[in-house]
Amino acid sequence: MNDPHTNPAARTVASTQSEMTEIILPNDTNTLGNLLGGRLMHFIDLTGAMAAYRHSRTHVVTAAMDHIDFIRPVHLGDLVTLKSCVNRAFSSSMEVGVKVWAENTRTGEICHVASAYLVFVAIDEHGQPVHVQPVEPQTPDELRRYEGALRRREHREAENARRKAAKQATAALKHPEGS
Ligand SMILES: CC(C)(COP(=O)(O)OP(=O)(O)OC[C@H]1O[C@@H](n2cnc3c(N)ncnc32)[C@H](O)[C@@H]1OP(=O)(O)O)[C@@H](O)C(=O)NCCC(=O)NCCS
Fold first, then answer.
1. What pLDDT does residue 89 have?
2. How far apart, in Å, are the Cα atoms of 168 and each of 110, 158, 177?
3. Of 88, 93, 132, which is best to mutate to test ligand 1, by the most ligand atoms within 8 angstroms of its C-beta?
4. Which of these, 2, 19, 107, 162, could form a disulfide with 10 (CB 3.0-4.6 Å)?
5. pLDDT given for residue 67 in this prediction
6. Alpha-carbon Rg of the chain, whole angstroms?
């Protein structure tokens, strides 16, 4: 493992932790006054990118956003708080976890409303992937997320390979050789 004491290049998860709070205004909501899912995904992408920037200290792009469950609606006037951190860094990519809470400003009630994992890739000014430093998990929760990130990466790679093979099979059916 990359210990920041023995590998000064390794970064702690805490050094990537990022947070943002937004008040939900009419422009953010649907006709029922609930936060639009796409708007929430935008906030998730932004908060995730902040953690990736803090880890890589270079340009980053979103390569993937995993499945998101919208657990509860968020209402007009609620305060939405998002927290992110880098779970694990690979060669040029970083898995970032984002968790979202909504606060009812009248009652003070706070509920967890969504969570997501995203993959950001560090790039140079020409858009080419560049190497990032490893992450050193320091708490049991950080270690659990670090280990989970490897399993999720393997799952994403298998899913990408499956989709690529299905696309090639469809293309072969549409354009059989010699036709
Ligand atoms: C992300 C991007 C830089 C990857 O470039 P690439 O030429 O495919 O690079 P590589 O195949 O060498 O992969 C680089 C890294 O990206 C990761 N990656 C690429 N596609 C991915 C995907 N769909 N999901 C997760 N990770 C992905 C690879 O696993 C690799 O990680 P590693 O270096 O840690 O092993 C490129 O696809 C891109 O610029 N995409 C558009 C990004 C963008 O515009 N995002 C905004 C969304 S609208």
1. 98
2. 47, 15, 13
3. 93
4. 2
5. 84
6. 19
Count, residues in the chain: 179
Tell the burial category of 56 from Cβ atoms under 10 Å away from its Cβ (0-12, 13-18, 19+).
buried
Q: Which residues of the chain have pLDDT under 70?
A: 1-8, 178-179
CB 54 within 8 A of CB 94: no
Single-letter code of the amino acid located at 91: S
- Distance from the CA of 76 to the center of ligand 1, in angstroms? 36
Look at residue 7 in the predicted model and tell me its pLDDT. 62
Two structure tokens written together for 173? 């059916």
Q: Under 8 Å CB-to-CB from 69, ≥6 apart: which residues?
A: 114, 115
Residue nearest to atom 37 of ligand 1 (CA): 63
Query: Tokens standing for 128?
Result: 């080419």
Q: What is the pTM of this model?
A: 0.92
